[in-house]
Each structure stands twice: as C-alpha cells, then as structure tokens.
Amino acid sequence: MSRTAILVGCAELPEGDGDEDVVLPALRELGFSVSWAPWDSGAGFAAADAVILRATWDYAARRAEFLDWCESVPALYNPAAVVRWNTDKAYLAELLDAGLAVVPTELVEPGEQARFPSSDFVVKPSVGAGSRGAARFAAGADASSHVAGLHAEGHTALIQPYQSSVDTEGELALVYLGGIYSHAFAKGAMLGSTMDASGLYLTEQLAKAEPPSDAVALAEDVLDAASALLGILRAELLYARVDLVRGADGKPLLLELELTEPSLGFRQADPAAALRFASAVRQQLA
After folding, report:
1. Which domain of life is it from (predicted)?
2. Do residues 226 and 95 touch, judged by C-beta distance below 8 A?
3. Which of 159, 131, 126 is nearest to 57 (CA)?
4. Contact, 33 vs 23, CB < 8 A?
5. How confident is the model at residue 280 (pLDDT cuts 50, 70, 90)?
6. Closest to 260 measured CA to CA, from 84, 93, 130, 51
7. Phi, psi of 212 (to 5 degrees)
8. R_g (Cα) of the chain, nearest Å
9. Beta-sheet strands, E only, within 112-251
10. pLDDT in tens, 117-167
11. DSSP, res 196
12. In whole angstroms, what is the distance from residue 257 CA to residue 229 CA?
C-alpha cells in the first residue's frame, strides 16, 4: 500500500540543502510516495500520511505563524507540541533544572538587565536557527547593545559561557531515529563562519564521528528527560539530534537538543542510515 510523505522546506530551500537526497529513495523503497514542499506553500499537508519537518529554517522570524501551521497538520513529525517546546531555547533551562549536564544558561527577557559571565561568553536569541543573531564576546566585555538589539526585535536573550573546547574539538552531534541511536558527526566551530547563499544558516564543517561512552550516556539521559518533560515516549520522536561540547573539566555538556528541523548528517553517516530513517517513519505511522 502506497503512503504519502512530504518533506517540508521553506521558500528559500524548497528541497532542503541536499542532506536528505539519500532519504528519498529509501522512503520509496518502503512504499512511500515522496515529495518536497515549503511549509507555507499551501500543499496538501492535511491529506499526507507523514509530513516531515526538514528545512523550515525561516521559522524564527515567523514563529507564531509557523506554530499555527504546525498545529493544523495532523500527521506532523515531530509533532506540533514538540516543535513549540523545542523552538524556544528556554527548554535548556528546564533540562538544567532537571539535573542534566547543560552548558550554563541565563535567559534575559526584554526589559530585564543582563549579567555577563567573567569568562568569554556567547549571546544569542532564545528563538533562532542556524546561529543567526549569535555573537561571541571576550571576558569582561559589555554586550548590552547586542542584548538590547535582540530585545528590540522581541527576542529573549540567552547568555552562555563560551566553551573553549569548540575551538579545538568542535561539537559532537548524536542522531537518534525513533528514539534509537543511529549515528554521530562532528561539527567545527560555527561562530565566525560565513552565511550560506540562502541566508538562513551558517556553513558548517562536518565529519563522521564515533561518540565516546560518556557522550552517549549524556545524550541518552537528555532524551529521557526531554521525553518526560513533554509527556511522551522516546519512540514518539521521529528524529532527535543531541549537540554536545566538552566543558572545562573535560566532561560533556548539552549545547542544544534539536527536535524540530535539524540537519541529520546523512552525508556523514553510513549508507544504512537512510533506511533506518525510512523505517522510523513507518514506525511512527504504526
């Protein structure tokens, strides 16, 4: 029986950035009719068996409209409630409160006064994608003007101490499909990178990686805690990407948990990863 799957992009990237090219034939092998469409295109999302968020990287500037659209799609993956929670990085504070090893995070609402770390630090909007609006500052710097600029745009500012390991090790991204570990890839430092031609995200240097045991353990804990906060089973997440960095003590820290539209690094994964993704889609429908 043929089922319909729509991979969702945006007007600037209506068919993503190419990372999913290997996924389409895998989905077709498992009985899906597959197409791409921008989320705001008016395509037949309501009638599709699976609507899969992949490259909706313009949502940050239109989050309310995007969330309304998500709520209107019956078979959205990941679901709208997950998207609402995950598209505001305030979730990091919730995971920190739950006892997870998270990069220290301070949220500064519009009208509040910011306090800056004594070490190098990063300021970014709590709602954003592709590292847009993120800036790094040296120890002792006054980033009030950057915070004010974010506030003027209606954003809550998020302040984190800069993790120097990013300069030497970069980040480690662990990918889970249907709640089960699939593969991992390494990401080079993004701050200071150039913007992609679409203007939606900063370019990344990616490479295949084998995660060490302590990173896997933290990623597992993060998924369990996030699922508990959301009131769902891990298996209900079609995809998840856990981004980790090393802290000053050498232990892994959560930088971001991507449950909405992350690149999943299929170009850095083994060939079977595309089939694992397609199988996870089937699992969601079952």
Report:
1. Bacteria
2. yes
3. 131
4. no
5. very high
6. 84
7. -70, 165
8. 18
9. 121-125, 135-137, 157-161, 171-177, 180-187, 206-209, 239-246
10. 999 999 999 998 767 789 999 999 999 999 999 999 989 999 999 999 988
11. P
12. 13
274 φ, ψ to 5°? -65, -40
What are the pLDDT digits (tens) for 33-54?
A: 999 999 999 999 999 999 999 9
Separation between Cα atoms, residue 263 and residue 55, nearest integer Å: 8
DSSP state of 161: E
Read off the DSSP letter of residue 257. E
Judge contact between 258 and 241, C-beta under 8 A: yes
Q: 120: which 2 tokens?
A: 């190098």
Residue 62: per-residue pLDDT: 93
For 264, the token pair is: 């999943």
The tokens for 29 are 């092998």
User: Residue 67 is encoded by which pair of tokens?
Assistant: 């969330």
Fold of 91-100+165-285: D-amino Acid Aminotransferase; Chain A, domain 1 (3.30.470)
Q: Are strands 32-38 and 3-9 parallel, antiparallel or unpaired?
A: parallel
Distance of alpha carbon 21 from alpha carbon 31, whole angstroms: 17
What would the pLDDT profile of 237-269 be if each residue is shown by its tens digit?
Answer: 999 999 999 999 999 999 999 999 999 999 999
What contacts 24+ positions apart, CB below 8 Å, involve 164-171?
164/120, 164/248, 165/245, 165/246, 165/247, 166/191, 166/245, 169/245, 169/246, 170/205, 171/243, 171/244, 171/245, 171/255
101: which 2 tokens?
A: 């090893």
8 Å CB contact between 31 and 3:
yes
> Quick one: 106 exposed, middle or buried, by C-beta within 10 A (0-12, 13-18, 19+)?
middle
Task: Extract the tokens encoding 39.
Answer: 């989320």
